[in-house]
Hints:
283 residues; seven-stranded mixed sheet; globular; 12 helices; two-stranded antiparallel ribbon; 14% strand
Amino acid sequence: MSQVALPPVSAFSRSSHRSSAKPKPAQRKVNWPAKHDLFGVKVSDTDYAKAEDLIIDAAHDHVSAIVTHLPVHGLVTAATDAAYRAHINNFDIVAPDGQPVRWAMNRFNATQLDDRCYGPELMIRLCRRAALEGISIYLYGSTPEVVQQLKLKLETLCPGLIVAGCESPPFRKLSPQELTDAIERINGSGAGLVFIGLGCPRQDIFANENRDRIQAIQMCVGAAFDFHAGNKKMAPPWMQRRGLEWLFRLFQEPGRLWKRYLVTNTIFILLAAKRMVTRHKTS
């Protein structure tokens, strides 16, 4: 399905996209959560509270940083694709988005995580904090209809939230000039948080390749755009707690997702089994 791009200066912006000519602010060091190896992928030992506090604090200073969330699909993709894994391992936070990822972190790295760090949930928590602390956000991704609906929903759910800009890029690789213009719009908006909903792996590649050009925290949240906009249903809490969100989504979109989950879930089980056997042999 072809993508319809928004006008050249995003759906709306609180400042001209040429205003981003200002010098990049000095970057301060942030003590991001420790990472642990999980099938070759560096996953962060973090929960909602830790991630939220660090991200909000860094957003106040417009720290250029990148955060993503890995469910089983994303973890397996990174574990089996060296090029994508190199992008992921460069992130400041790689949150354990799926319950099975959290279980594996606790099993193999003794992290003692009580809950996963789910992208849609962290997004809404950050938006509520941003509204309270005067941090503006930018929405980048999905379709024009979804991103506009998301803007309206977030402003309702998070009173006082400033959405400094939003846009839906075309479903193709941007030209160098298009990319430069998009980055100027983002920086010119003054947003401290940039939520990216381009899907895996496109959103992670975009964030990593532009981490030094975008003067904000880039949050790769994928399906959170559709969930919070009301375009897709989120799995009920009891299924989320039991690691069955993939099953709920499969029922929602069987034609698109059956192969993904068949392949990635199987590979995840095999990787976990191999890790268990290796640990048993070396113990």
